[in-house]
Every structure is written in structure tokens, then in C-alpha cells.
């Protein structure tokens, strides 16, 4: 965009830019990070034909630090790249680093916090950290970009990333290899679990709404509201603040009220909120629907992320690398399909219809969360699919007889 202070000239410059880079192209650039995250999240977590968890062999610390190194390189590339190709490459590298850090980080939390309530609270705090980045990022980047330049925000971010890397070296000690004590469930087996698929679907479709808004809402604001550049980032501020509030509140509350119910309500709220976005006629009119979108996604994420670990504990082996790879792939699927499909739909039938479609999809998916109310455990599955041996039957009868005698006494 032009740095001219006259808003009319900025609008004309935007229109010329939009002809060269239409909404669909902006969408594909936005989703390149998520596409690479999908491949890394899917294939770097398994090895050989039996899909053994790679994280269980080396532990969680090394992938987290590797993710930091890759994201630091991508941030430097963002600062000094001037062509679409280099920016696309930097965005893709960012997806690789994000996949390494997020999957290993969630797996480490699930492994350290074995109690379900504590795990939900810890993951809620971690998602709050994600929300802080999303909260600060858009206004920080848009304001510095307009008043200082493109390079400044990325150099500041790279300095903060170095500080984070130093903390990891001292706290996590990524040079140590700490493999899991047991072999995890094969990834293909987890993908066949319908309850894990429902939880992953909620994460995917819940985040797809905001993913579709990221490349399309700023363009729609420029066309309908003549918004300034700094306002394009500020528009997402209510969603970021409410996401931070939602993840911290429902990290604890979801365990008490039922994570399935929290996710169901959140999916409905996401659908209703995104449908209301196109009715805004000014940037102030975006505050309430964007706040609703962020708060509802916070409800879904803080419910479904812990339930992924709970389902593995309940129905599989308690090794979490593979299941959080699935969760990360689901999250990235939303942010990969959202911008690419959303950009094309917005170009074809308009932004309002795009929001209506994703809103209806979220509301229709919500009832599936009812199946997560009381999922069967591993013992129930074994009893229903296999008949116990004669030795096992005799042991069960002896235990029942022993308990009966104790009750009589």
C-alpha cells in the first residue's frame, strides 16, 4: 500500500493491489503455513509401516526447540523478503516450525499433567499463550507497518524469539533425549477412532470461521467501509481478547460442566457470530460478532484439546504425540481450507454468503459433540469384542466370590 497520508489515495492503491493479487491469491498465501503444518504434523509423528510415534523415541523437548529454530529463520525471511515467492516460502517454513512446537508442546503437557482436570487447566493456559500472540500480532504488525515499515515488526519478533530460545535451552534442556516408557497406539488406529475424529472435526470447523475471515474480512472492510490500514488489524482485536478470556475460563470450567457441552455451545456460538459479521456497517459494528467468534472458539479449543488426551487415556495407550498430531492437523486443516476456499467463495458469491455457509456448517456439526458425552473405555471395548478366556472367567468368578463373602461378613 502507498504511504501517502491521503486516505483516498490509499484506497485507490488498495484497489490496484487487489487487481494484481485477488482474494483467492491472498487466501492461498495465508494458508501456505497451515498446508506445510499438515504434512509435518501428519508424517513427522510416525515412522515405518506401523506408524510408531516418533516423539515417543526422542521426547518432546527436541521438537519444541527445532520448531523455535525454524520459526526464527522464517521471521528473518519475512523481514527482508520483497517478492511473493520468498514470502510464500517464509510462510511455509513458519508452518513447519509451528507444527513441531505445537504438537510436541501439547504432548508434553498431556504427559506431565496426568489428572484430567489439571491437564485441561494447563492446556487452557497454553492456549492462552496462543491467544496472546494472536491478540498482540495484528495491531502490533499493522501499526508498525504503517508508521515504521515492514521490516521493524519482524525484527522485534525475531529478538523476542531469541529470548524464548534461550529460556528453552535453560529450562527444557533440548539436548537430552527422553523417550517414552511405552509404545504408543499406531496413528492409523487413532484415525479410525470415531470419537477422536469428532473431536478433531470440532477443532477444524470451529477454527475455520476465523480462518476464512483472516484474508477476506480486511478486503471486505476496505471495499465497504473504506477502512485504514491500521484498522484492518484492530478489527481482529475483539476476537483475540475474547479467545484469551474463553480459553482461561473454560480451561477449568469445561471439566465441570462437561467438555462435550462446552464444545457444542461453542460451535453454535461460532456459527451464529460469523453469520452476524456481514451485517456490520462500520468497524464498531464488528466488535460484538468478532468478540463472539473468539470467545466461542476459545470454548471449543479449551474443551477439545484436553479431550483428545482423555480419549487416548480412556481408549488407547497413554502416549500423546500421535493424538496431538491429529489435533494439530485438524487445526491446520481449518486454517488451510479456510483461506483458500474462503477466498474463492468470497470472489464468486460474496463475503456475506461465505460467512453464512461456514456458520451453517458449524451449527450443523454441533450435535455430533453429544457423542463425546460418555465415550466407552478400553475395557468396555475389549469385553464387547472379545470373549474372555477360561482362566480369565475363573479369576473373575473368584474375585466376585471374594467380594460377596466380604459383604456378608
Automatic annotation (TrEMBL):
GO cellular component, one term: synaptic vesicle membrane
Database matches in CDD domains: MFS_SLC18A1_2_VAT1_2
Keyword Transport appears in the UniProt entry: yes
Keywords for the protein's UniProt record, in alphabetical order: Membrane, Transmembrane, Transmembrane helix, Transport
Domain Major facilitator superfamily (MFS) profile: 154-409
A Gene Ontology BP annotation from the UniProt entry: aminergic neurotransmitter loading into synaptic vesicle
Main location as per UniProt: membrane
SUPFAM superfamilies named among the record's database cross-references: MFS general substrate transporter (SSF103473)
Location relative to the cell: Membrane
Mode of membrane association: Multi-pass membrane protein
Ranges that cross the membrane: 25-43, 64-87, 93-113, 125-145, 151-172, 193-212, 232-251, 260-280, 286-311, 323-345, 351-372
Name recorded for this polypeptide: Solute carrier family 18 member 2
Lineage of origin: Eukaryota, Metazoa, Chordata, Craniata, Vertebrata
Gene field: slc18a2
Amino acid at each position: 500500500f502507498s504511504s501517502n497520508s491521503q486516505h483516498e489515495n490509499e484506497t485507490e492503491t488498495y484497489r490496484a493491489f487487489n487487481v494484481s493479487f485477488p482474494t483467492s491469491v491472498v487466501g492461498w498465501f495465508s494458508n501456505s503455513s497451515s498446508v506445510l503444518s499438515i504434512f509435518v504434523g501428519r508424517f513427522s509423528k510416525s515412522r515405518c509401516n506401523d506408524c510408531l510415534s516418533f516423539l515417543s523415541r526422542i521426547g518432546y523437548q527436541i521438537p519444541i526447540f527445532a520448531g523455535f529454530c525454524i520459526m526464527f529463520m522464517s521471521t528473518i525471511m519475512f523481514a527482508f523478503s520483497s517478492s511473493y515467492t520468498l514470502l510464500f516460502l517464509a510462510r511455509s517454513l513458519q508452518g513447519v516450525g509451528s507444527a513441531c512446537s505445537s504438537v510436541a508442546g501439547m504432548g508434553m503437557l498431556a504427559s506431565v499433567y496426568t489428572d484430567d482436570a489439571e491437564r485441561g487447566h494447563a492446556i487452557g493456559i497454553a492456549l492462552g499463550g496462543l491467544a496472546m500472540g494472536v491478540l498482540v500480532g495484528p495491531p502490533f504488525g499493522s501499526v508498525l507497518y504503517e508508521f515504521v515499515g515492514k521490516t521493524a515488526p519482524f525484527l522485534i519478533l525475531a529478538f523476542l524469539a531469541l529470548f524464548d530460545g534461550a529460556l528453552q535451552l535453560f529450562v527444557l534442556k533440548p539436548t537430552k533425549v527422553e523417550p517414552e516408557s511405552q509404545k504408543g497406539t499406531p496413528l492409523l488406529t487413532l484415525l479410525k477412532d470415531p470419537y477422536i475424529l469428532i473431536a478433531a472435526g470440532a477443532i477444524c470447523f470451529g477454527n475455520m470461521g476465523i480462518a476464512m475471515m483472516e484474508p477476506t474480512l480486511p478486503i471486505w472492510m476496505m471495499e465497504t467501509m473504506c477502512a485504514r490500514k491500521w484498522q484492518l488489524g484492530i478489527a481482529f482485536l475483539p476476537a483475540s481478547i475474547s479467545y484469551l478470556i474463553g480459553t482461561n475460563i473454560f480451561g477449568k470450567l469445561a471439566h465441570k460442566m462437561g467438555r462435550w457441552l462446552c464444545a457444542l455451545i461453542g460451535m453454535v456460538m461460532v456459527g451464529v457470530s460469523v453469520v452476524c459479521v456481514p451485517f456490520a456497517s462500520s468497524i464498531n459494528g464488528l466488535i460484538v460478532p468478532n468478540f463472539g467468534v473468539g470467545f466461542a472458539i476459545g470454548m471449543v479449543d479449551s474443551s477439545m484439546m484436553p479431550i483428545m488426551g482423555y480419549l487416548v487415556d480412556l481408549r488407547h495407550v497413554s502416549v500423546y504425540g500421535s493424538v496431538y498430531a491429529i489435533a494439530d492437523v485438524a487445526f491446520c486443516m481449518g486454517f488451510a481450507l479456510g483461506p483458500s476456499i474462503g477466498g474463492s467463495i468470497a470472489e464468486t458469491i460474496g463475503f456475506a454468503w461465505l460467512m453464512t455457509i461456514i456458520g451453517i456448517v458449524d451449527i450443523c456439526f454441533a450435535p455430533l459433540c453429544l457423542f463425546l458425552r460418555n465415550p466407552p473405555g478400553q475395557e468396555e471395548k475389549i469385553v464387547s469384542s472379545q470373549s474372555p478366556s477360561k482362566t480369565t472367567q475363573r479369576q473373575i468368578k473368584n474375585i466376585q466370590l471374594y467380594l460377596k463373602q466380604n459383604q456378608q461378613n
